[in-house]
Amino acid sequence: MDESDDTRGKAVIQSLRFANETHPGEQGEGLYLHGMFGVGKTYIAAAIQNTLAERNIQSMLVYVPEFFREMRQSVADGTVTEKLEAVKRVPVLLLDDLGAETMSSWVRDDVLGVILQYRMTEKLPTVFTSNWDYDELEDHLSFSQKGGKNA
Question: What is the pTM of this model?
Answer without folding.
Answer: 0.83
